[in-house]
Amino acid sequence: MDRDSLPRVPDTHGDVVDEKLFSDLYIRTSWVDAQVALDQIDKGKARGSRTAIYLRSVFQSHLEMLGSSVQKHAGKVLFVAILVLSTFCVGLKSAQIHSKVHQLWLQEGGQLEAELAYTRKTIGEDYSATHQMLIQTSHDPNASVLHPQALLAHLDVLIRATAVKVHLYDTEWGLRDICNMPSTPSFEGTFLIEQILKHLIPCSIITPLDCFWEGSQLLGPETAVVIPGLNQRLLWTTLNPASVMQFMKEKLSDQTTGFDFETVEQYMKRAGIGSGYMEKPCLNPMNPSCPDTAPNKNSTHPPDVGAILSGGCYGYAANYMHWPEQLIVGGAKRNRSGHLRKAQALQTVVQLMTEKEMFDQWLGHYKVHHLGWSQEKAAEVLNAWQRNFSREVEQLLRKKSRIGANYDIFVFSSAALDDILAKFSHPSVLSIVIGVAITVLYAFCTLLRWRDPVRGQSSVGVAGVLLMCFSTAAGLGLCALLGIVFNAASTQVVPFLALGLGVDHIFMLTAAYAESNRREQTKLILKKVGPSILFGACSTAGSFFAAAFIPVPALKVFCLQAAIVMCSNLAAAILVFPALISLDLRRRTAGRADIFCCCFPIWKEPPKVAAQPVLPLNNNNGRAARHLKHCNSNRVPVPQPAQNPLLEQGEPKSSGYSLASFSLSSFAFKYYAPFLMRSWVKFLAVMGFVVALIFSLYASTRLQDGLDIIDLVPKNSNEHKFLDAQTRLFGFYSMFAVTQGNFEYPTQQQLLRDYHDAFVRVPHVIKNDNGGLPDFWLLLFRDWLSNLQRIFDEEYRDGKLTKECWFPNASSDAILAYKLIVQTGHVDNSVDKDLVLTNRLVHSDGNINPRAFYNYLSAWATNDVFAYGASQGKLYPEPRQYYHQPNEYDLKIPKSLPLVYAQMPFYLHGLTDTSQIKTLIGHIRDISVKFEGFGLPNYPSGIPFMFWEQYMSLRLSLATILACVFLAALVLVSLILLSVYAAVIVILSVLASLAQIFGAMTVLGIQLSAIPSVILILSVGMMLCFNVLISLGFMTSVGNRQRRVQLSMQMSLGPLVHGMLTSGVAVFMLSTSPFEFVIRHFCWLLLVVLCIGACNSLLVFPILLSMIGPEAELVPLEHPDRISTPSPLPVRSSKRSGKSYVVQGSRSSRGCKNSHHHHHKDANDPSLTTITEEPQSWKSSNSSIQMANDWNAPNCNGYQPAPRESRQSAYAVPPPAYHKATAPPLTPPTPPPAFQPAYPPELQSIVVQPEVTVETTHSDSNTTKVTATANIKVELVTPGRAMRSYNFTS
């Protein structure tokens, strides 16, 4: 430790120090200089925790060394800092932004991630479906859409939107190129009928229009199909598939075409393709195109839309296309019989292929031969078409005023959602500029001093705010260089949050800088507030690092980026901002104004005369004060001092010259802290705190979980409106129950069926007309085999087949059944005709023959393609292909590979809030675990599990993280306060504040999700900063609890208020974000944290400290409210001898003409400008050295300052209450002057007998070199003790 820089006591060796610093040394000893406190304990003048104070002194010494180095190399530090920060800022160019929902909000780690990884590994994609969705509602929320006009408007929009094209890669893509449509049977050879069939099969569109003939207008085809011999252009509006197939069969039966009409007939029969839309009612019975077979043709009464839609609608393939009512009609109200009476919305879903499905569909096709066809290009085509679909709907609503005037049409697609998230995920430059400007203006106004511009701090404060902006940008650039991706949470929140928390450090440093004098070095400022800044930054950054364990990618990235930015701001505040202060000290020393320091002349301060009254005399009233020698030997009467100079640090001399003559430190000491110490205030505050805590604990039990998907989408967007309507009116989701590998499907069929049947008891799962579940792939597979077995049995009895062969009159299905029955399931011996008599495709217990299960699977997937596609089984590995030809006598059927992935589809409805979804997930997870125990590896999949699975373990994860954070906080606070008891009080206070935040969330309707969890963890760090700063001031002060609360609030109120206000401004700027989750869960909740923190930290916590606060680190034994006057620190002569000192601007040590050059010289520098020798017979209690380099030194213009003793008394003399009887003088005193001040005994027992020899030389560089050799004899006399003599040679 540099002992020369320590604040000295004026009456021991003559250093002139600022009143605030001098008072802090006496009443905040361990905060200012722990080494002095340690000396007090070692000399028996005080008691306290020596270990704690020693550790604090070691910490302060390191900060002091850091501050000294920064001040010495201030310019270099700034230059290097600018280079480093600029380099990191360049990293922002490489920033990547993730905007897709599945990249941001899917839970990482744990079971869900493993399940998604398995899905991705097996089938190559995360999702099994892509949808283009459209919802229609009425402008009037009370109006119903169950009338023909609403459905006709719905039809008009869909016809225009589904007809859009997209030109990409020199190719035109339409709906039929990208939609999901049923597969058609394949035949060996080229047949015109096969091409016609493929051209007629339309896309799968789930719509309420399928209940009416008008639904056929959506199916096309774009160009009519012409069948030879049939004088009709076939469109679905006029197509009767059953009659056309019968006509073609009759027309071509006499021709040798070789086409298998029976296969097509069986295909249509199994799918339920009959008359198409020809027998469905028309929305407009008077329409000339309405078919004659429609039940309400030419009817004058409109159809009963509600009754027709009740129970759902059926597509053209009735057996596999049943659209549940809950999927197509929303906000329904029913009559007593259960029929629809009123509905608020209609919904249509256009089913599209996934990226992988489209890639596989077109791979090798001539249409993409000129392309480097890839899955990425397939995704671009899909996204481009969906964008055009949305754009077409928007244009149609603007053009057709009839539709737009009566109805709202909302379109939603994953591509449009990704686009809008990408658009709004970029930071708002305007909002950032406004936030920075407001913060700069606040710092400028609060730190400006109009009447004392030299002591003003507005310029350095503004520079500090801009530095925090610079360091924030650099921290984000460092994140980009580290490969941490950005998202909406980080771009919208981190800049404002980092600015608000970073400016807190600036105000703490400027508060210490404001109370320092002009000569106080940067190292002393950093030594005072450095520990508080380090703790605050570490606690905040630590909270962010802890919150990064929340398993949501968007928030994990947000926390990591915020923590890195907090570290960047800490480095800037500890290393770079002190360099700015060091440069500003030069401006102060030069006496220049704070604003435009280079433009205004040197500020001349008015002369100050220290007041000193006549103090009460004691038994040594004959003792006289010494007269100092001044330039003109004129004397100035000595005025009276303040009554309580040690406590006048609450009113620094400059406070009267601030902008509004108002100081938060003065207000805290004079008014606020005494107000808190009143009994009735304590009672009301504590009772209010207890009542609020009890209410918060009760409200916390009613806190709900949830984060609506609508909050993740920018408000006022079309997607936001769609999700709002979909959540309120439908609550519809699809899910899949996935079964995995390492499971013997052929022998465990009953377990699979039991697993499927278990979902009947799950709430919110849509049932079929019979109250059961739709069939899944295994049941469809079994039904197909059962039908073949039935046909085979009939024809075998009729003699159409035998054990060895079949006859020409055997049907195609019977022949296929024969081929299946003779399969053994062995690859080397795959056929055994003896099985015809004994083997059954499906056993009596409902199980498929397990030996040939995978042979049968190959035949079913290829020859019953409609059922296989409608099952949505996604079997993997995909079954091998086997096309059955009746005239083919090869009996061998290829065997498919064992399944490792299969899924069962389910539809969910009525899921409008998180509690319902959590209940559903819990129920399904219980089923999954149950059957996992039975040996069936399985897991659920779907949107509810992807986005709401995190809530199942959220509370446990949050509790675990908070427990770890509080444990780490206890250790960290114990280290900074060096008291476990004080740390426990702080932690309990933070716990109470956290409980109040939970209660406030319940009151404000903010549900618990991953985002509030992050804020709750962050709030712990913020609350610790508030309370620890107050606790540090409380423990390092001297006196009883109430007095230490006053001193603590005087020190901390200003920085806390400024920090909270700037943080509040920065947080309030988050309200400009377009994302609802940023406003509700970041802006509102952070404002709640700041309000609760301000109330508890500034009102309740000081009262608790005054009642149960810990003991002070240092307890004086001689005086109740201050330490004993520190003794001078002796310096070994061997280290001081022969040392030369340079004093600028003075050739003679006694000259006055150049005295103005020394006005701003550091008092701690060993300058010898004026040396006054005392007569050998003089015995004085004060130093005999006149320090002319004080900034209040004589100006040689006729003004004579107060004598040295007068100024020292104004600073150093304790209040009368602390005076003791003084010892009699050793020698007879000289005649007393007019004023005879009394001194405490330790100030009267020093005898100085200087013998000084001065040698001066003057060089050409206008520098005076003074070499001084002094022989000083000090005799220390203590009443009742022996005299001790010390000799020093310098």
UniProtKB/TrEMBL annotation:
CC terms in the record's Gene Ontology section: basal plasma membrane; cilium; endocytic vesicle; fusome
Matches recorded under SUPFAM superfamilies: Multidrug efflux transporter AcrB transmembrane domain
Main location: membrane
Biological-process GO terms, alphabetical: axon guidance; Bolwig's organ morphogenesis; determination of genital disc primordium; eye-antennal disc morphogenesis; follicle cell of egg chamber development; gonad development; imaginal disc-derived wing morphogenesis; lipid homeostasis
Alphabetical UniProt keywords: Glycoprotein, Membrane, Receptor, Transmembrane, Transmembrane helix
InterPro entries given in the database record: HMGCR/SNAP/NPC1-like_SSD (IPR053958), SSD (IPR000731), TM_rcpt_patched (IPR004766)
Protein name per the record: SSD domain-containing protein
Protein species of origin: Drosophila ananassae
